[in-house]
Amino acid sequence: MVKRPELLIPAGSPEVLRTAVAFGADAVYIGGEMFGLRAKARNFSPDDMREGIAFAHSHHVKVYVTANILAHNSDLEEVKTYFKELKEIGPDALIIADPAVFDLAVEICPEIERHISTQANNTNYGTYRFWRKLGAKRVVAARELSLAEIREIRANIPPDMEIECFVHGAMCVSYSGRCLLSNYFTGRDANQGSCTHPCRWKYFLSEETRPGEYMPVYENERGTYIFNSRDLCMIEHIPELLDAGIDSLKVEGRMKTALYVAAVARTYRRAIDDYLADPQLYREHMPWYREQISGCTHRKFSTGFYFGRPDADSQIYDESTYVREYTYLGCVEGVKDGFCRLEQKNKFSVGEKIEIMKPGGENIETTVKRILDEDGREQESAPHAKQILYADLGIVPEKYDILRRKEEKDYGL
After folding, report:
1. What is the reported pTM?
2. Residue 372's beta-bridge partner residues?
């Protein structure tokens, strides 16, 4: 019998955490205000973390907290203080890369599970055994592993030692995400949580003895994006992932919106459940999975390293833009007298056609009938970001439904 895997979804804010839970996550991973690798995410204050964990646990969803920086001497005392606070807050696990940070977690909050981050370059079963002896429950596989290598790891570690693998989201050009470009160009260290994503910038070739002469790396007058990886997408390969013995299927994206998280979580949730119920059902629903996952903001897709080393087709040389088929309008925070309450994320207007995206898989097209501000005044449009609004959509949505608008723009794909 195939083991049911965990679906692990990112959350960069309390709003996104609630969305991830509502749209099918088994677990979410979040960052606190220190020591994670997404300093530009909104992240969670201690109070946010308490509330988020309580909400998730009330829905039988686990919460893991990232503490996966590569620590410097000056970080260690603050890590101690942080872990003492987390001991009181009580997440389900800590995601750690640095051995010193791992030791501090064992010392200060041993009751919290310890998971080893992909940043630790986990590429062989000996590494898994090493961390197991030190008390780790789970190791996140390096993204550079093939499914064949993961199967070999599974066969050579204890059955209760967990394997977590990324299955969807952005890929890093550097080995296991350990990039130096950001620090070199901007002084912002990717390994301290401040990556500026220089892999997405445009580059030219310069010859050492000819300063100021810049040549395209390949024949394109605009230069080339030689470090720009495709996004990972394994929605068509759920059977292979489960056959490899992976315990947790992880989605990348703590910088992503609630719309992105909702779409990805809902699609993978349904794909996993369909396959476990009946592999034929999974195959029959594949067009729906593809359609839904393509509606998320993304770069062109690949399967990463899972079926062998990526070739030239796994890079995007000619541009660095995202495909965006939908615009996120807001998340339904509640409903009263037929009006839904939301915080506006992007402009929309009375008379516009929008979609209500529901956790169960439905996408309901409707027309905006009325928009009111917090004081009950009528508005023809909602142009102000983060404004609290009440909208009559003609039909009554439910709490945590996502509102989005399909864009007609041709992205040239």
Report:
1. 0.84
2. 378, 390
Burial of 240 (C-beta count, 10 Å sphere; 0-12/13-18/19+)? middle
In degrees and rounded to multiples of 5, residue 314 shows phi and psi of -85, -5
Residues 65 and 247: their CA atoms lie apart, in Å, by 18
Which residue type occupies 159? Answer: P
Residues 251-274: what's their mean pLDDT? 93
The answer to whether residues 30 and 64 touch, using CB atoms and an 8 Å cutoff, is yes
Topology of the domain covering 6-174+229-314: TIM Barrel (3.20.20)
pLDDT in tens, 105-141: 999 999 999 999 998 999 999 999 999 999 999 999 9
Q: How far is CA 291 from CA 114, 236, 325, 361, in A?
A: 36, 12, 11, 12
* pLDDT of amino acid 338: 93
Yes or no: say if 138 and 222 are a contact pair by the CB < 8 Å rule.
no
Say if residues 387 and 343 touch (Cβ distance below 8 Å). Answer: yes
Looking at per-residue confidence, does 206 or 351 come out higher?
351
Calculate ∠ Cα 105-33-267, nearest 5°. Answer: 90
Locate the domains of the chain by residue range.
6-174+229-314, 326-406
Question: What b-and-e string marks burial along 156-181, b requiring 16 or more CB atoms within 10 Å of the CB?
Answer: ebeeebbbbbbbbbbbbbeebbebeb
Q: What's the topology of domain 326-406?
A: Elongation Factor Tu (Ef-tu); domain 3 (2.40.30)
Closest C-alpha to 140, from 248, 9, 28, 25: 248
Q: pLDDT at position 304, please?
A: 85
**pLDDT band at residue 213 under the 50/70/90 scheme:** low
Of 159-168, 268-277, 299-308, 387-396, where does mean pLDDT reach its minimum?
Answer: 299-308
Sheet holding 363-367: strands in order across? 326-331, 402-406, 353-357, 363-367
d(CA 188, CA 193) in angstroms, rounded, equals 8
Number of residues that make up the chain: 413
By the 8 A CB rule, do 233 and 168 touch? yes
DSSP 298: B
Nearest C-alpha neighbor of 234 from the set 281, 270, 268, 262: 268
* Under 8 Å between Cβ of 395 and 324: no
Rounded to 5 degrees, what angle do the CA atoms 255, 256, 262 make?
A: 145
Confidence (pLDDT) at 218? 53
Q: What element of type H or E holds 372?
A: strand 370-372
**152-161, 194-203, 296-305, 358-367, range with the lowest pLDDT:** 194-203
